[in-house]
Amino acid sequence: MSRVCELTGKRAMVGNNVSHAMNKTKRKFNVNLIKKRFYIPEEDKWMTLKISTSALKTINKKGISAVIKEARAKGFLNQ
């Protein structure tokens, strides 16, 4: 499975390592992903999601139901 947040669609970015001599080599900025289980009371089931930590902060603020509803509207979550 790729390193993509299932709720926000965040994925790795590409950039440069820059040395003191200003030599540039390619590098990857990976997303800070965690695997987390959530209980959705409307559907009366548990759901395991691979999400970014910024998405986890959004879930803590808005609630899992609202965030899942937004993600399904944007087409990120297919369940």
From TrEMBL:
One of its GO terms (biological process) is translation. Pfam families: Ribosomal_L28 (PF00830). Gene3D superfamilies: Ribosomal protein L28/L24. GO terms for cellular component: ribonucleoprotein complex; ribosome. The keyword Ribonucleoprotein applies. InterPro entries: Ribosomal_bL28, Ribosomal_bL28/bL31-like_sf, Ribosomal_bL28_bact-type, Ribosomal_bL28_sf. One of its GO terms (molecular function) is structural constituent of ribosome. Keywords: Ribonucleoprotein, Ribosomal protein. The keyword Disulfide bond does not apply. Belongs to the bacterial ribosomal protein bL28 family. NCBIfam families: L28. This is Large ribosomal subunit protein bL28. It comes from Croceibacter atlanticus (strain ATCC BAA-628 / JCM 21780 / CIP 108009 / IAM 15332 / KCTC 12090 / HTCC2559).
